[in-house]
Each structure stands twice: as C-alpha cells, then as structure tokens.
C-alpha cells in the first residue's frame, strides 16, 4: 500500500514538473523593436499580393507574353488605391545645386505610386547633376519620399584654355557658369593642378601671414608650383620641400619686409640660394646707381 502511495506521489510530482517546464517553454521573451515595423511592412505587401497579384491567374504562356514588367506596373498602379502614393518629396542638404534640376530629375508628382521608381536608378540620375556628389533616397511609408543630397565642396577655380572651372575638393569640375560668387577662391593653372591643389592649400595655410597675399598658382610640369601674389610678385617654389621654402619666405617678409619692396620675382628653387628679380622701378634704381658709380 505504501509503495502504491509513493508511486502516486511520484506521478503527481512529475506532472507538476512537466507543467512548469511547459510554462517556461511557452513563455516568450519580449520581441525586439524591429519586429513590429517589419511585420507591418510584410503585411502591407501580403495584402497587395493577395488582392491584386492573386486574381491575375493566367497560363505560363500568357505571363511570358505580357511580360513581368507589365504585371509589375499594373500591380504598382493599383497599390496607390491602398494609399501607397506620393504626397510629399522632402529635399535635404541642398545649398548650391539647382532645385528645379533636382525636381526635374526626380520626376515624381503628388499622387504617383510610391513604388513607381527604383531607388538605385534615381540615385544614379541625381549624382550626374553638377553639384551632387552623392544622394540617399528613402521611402517613408505610406506617402513620403525623402532625398538627402551631399553636395560637392568648392575648392579652387581652375583656368584651362582661358576658361574658368569651379573645382571641388576631389579635383572634380563642378561648373563653369555663375562663378561670380566664387571670385575669392584661389585660381590655379596647369595640367593636373586641381588634383595637386589640396597639398598647395595646406602649404599656404601653414603661414597665416602670407595667406591673404596669394592670388593664383601655376603647376609647372606637374612637379612644382609658381605662386603669384596679389601685388604681382611671382614666387618660384622648389619641387622638393616647398613647405620649407614657403616658411622661409614668410620669415624673410616678417624680418625684412621683402614683399613690400619693388620685386618682380623671387626664385627659391635652388637650395640655400635666393634669386630676386627687381621690378621696373627697382631695375631703374639699380641701373642709375650703376651709372653713378
């Protein structure tokens, strides 16, 4: 009898344990935050597929004849009836790029199906516009398209065959039109000058006392720079260690007011040697002094 009672107790104990294990197994952890919006998105497309794709029950030959594109266009057109249509196009990050050019390139109108365009194809069209370096396009369901523009940053004006081009920090030509507002930028000349300009600008900025005096620069033989100051003085920098020569020029100007003198050209290409060509008045003064002696 006691053995029977023990058996019954053991069975009851095992049943309790089984129920606890079942409860733990069926107890679910809270769903991650991304689950709900994902389910909603899947639900929308499931509804679309069920309502509009399902009834198009045709034979395989009919599908081939009509084409997948035709079916997709018909489906996309009908999604607008569910509210999946463009109500707003939000444009972010535009400063210099033409708004009208962007709108024309995007080609979306209010009421168009929000699935009527491919994001990658639209991005490729946008980055072909002069000012646009990159673009990010997002659909915000059910009716908003957001476009974020990354514009090219103007760096210098590049003179080529007597024509000026606005160049960006990557050495890419932005435009040759409407350059009046960029007159304060440095003008560079020479083949390959835009690509070499970042290093030049860093060198110029290293000596603040000379920055405001620089007007233009010419890249000679893709190797070295001639810097033209606003007063017309030409500085011939060496191919090697131009930064060091530029620093030396700033020192000479601070100590001896070299750039305030009547000087036409300063040649710094030779190490430890400075060649100075006087201006018109300086040459006349030197000549007069030579005659007096």
Give an account of the 3D structure.
- Helix 2 crosses helix 4 (68-79).
- The chain is rod-shaped and about 80 Å long.
- It has helices at residues 2-26, 35-53, 60-66, 68-79, 99-106, 119-126, 193-205, 208-211, 242-256, 280-292; strands at residues 88-92, 132-140, 144-151, 154-160, 163-168, 173-175, 187-189, 214-220, 224-229, 234-236, 263-267, 275-278.
- The strands form two sheets. The protein has a nine-stranded mixed β-sheet with strand order 6-5-4-7-8-9-10-11-12.
- By secondary structure, the chain is of the alpha/beta class.
- It starts with a helix and ends with a helix.
- The model is unreliable at 1-8, 22-28, 34-40, 50-59 and 283-293 (pLDDT under 50).
- It contains ten helices and twelve strands.
- It is 42% helix and 23% strand.
- It has three domains: 35-81, no CATH class; 84-151, membrane protein fhac (Ubiquitin-like (UB roll)); 154-292, 3-Layer(aba) Sandwich (Rossmann fold), CATH 3.40.50.11690.
CATH fold description of the largest domain: Rossmann fold
Order of helices and strands: HHHHEHHEEEEEEHHEEEHEEH
**End-to-end CA span:** 144 Å
Q: So what's the CATH class of the largest domain? A: Alpha Beta
Strands ordered across the widest β-sheet: 6-5-4-7-8-9-10-11-12
Full CATH superfamily name of the largest domain: Cell division protein FtsQ/DivIB
What value does the average pLDDT take? 81
Q: Mind describing the biggest β-sheet?
A: 9 strands, mixed
Total strands: the figure is 12
Strand content: 15-25%
Give the CA-based shape. Answer: rod-shaped
């Amino acid at each position: 009898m006691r053995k029977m009672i023990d058996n019954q107790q053991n069975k009851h104990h095992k049943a309790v344990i089984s129920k606890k294990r079942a409860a733990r197994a069926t107890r679910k952890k809270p769903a991650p935050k991304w689950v709900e919006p994902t389910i909603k998105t899947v639900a929308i497309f499931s509804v679309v597929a069920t309502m509009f794709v399902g009834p198009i029950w045709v034979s395989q030959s009919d599908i081939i004849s009509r084409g997948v594109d035709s079916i997709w266009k018909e489906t996309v057109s009908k999604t607008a009836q569910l509210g999946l249509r463009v109500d707003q196009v939000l444009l972010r990050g535009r400063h210099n790029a033409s708004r009208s050019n962007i709108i024309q390139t995007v080609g979306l109108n209010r009421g168009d199906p929000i699935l009527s365009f491919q994001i990658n194809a639209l991005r490729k069209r946008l980055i072909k516009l002069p000012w646009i370096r990159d673009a990010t396009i997002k659909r915000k369901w059910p009716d908003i398209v957001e476009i974020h523009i990354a514009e090219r940053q103007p760096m210098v004006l590049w003179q080529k065959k007597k024509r000026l081009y606005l160049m960006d920090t990557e050495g890419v030509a932005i435009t040759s039109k409407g350059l009046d507002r960029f007159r304060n930028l440095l003008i560079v000349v020479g083949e390959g000058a835009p690509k070499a300009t970042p290093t030049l600008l860093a060198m110029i900025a290293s000596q603040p006392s000379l920055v405001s005096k620089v007007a233009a620069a010419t890249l000679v033989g893709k190797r070295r720079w001639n810097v033209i100051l606003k007063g017309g003085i030409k500085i011939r920098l060496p191919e090697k260690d131009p930064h060091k020569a530029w620093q030396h020029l700033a020192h000479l100007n601070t100590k001896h007011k070299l750039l305030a003198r009547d000087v036409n050209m300063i040649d710094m290409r030779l190490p430890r040697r400075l060649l100075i060509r006087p201006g018109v008045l300086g040459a006349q003064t030197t000549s007069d002094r030579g005659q007096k002696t």
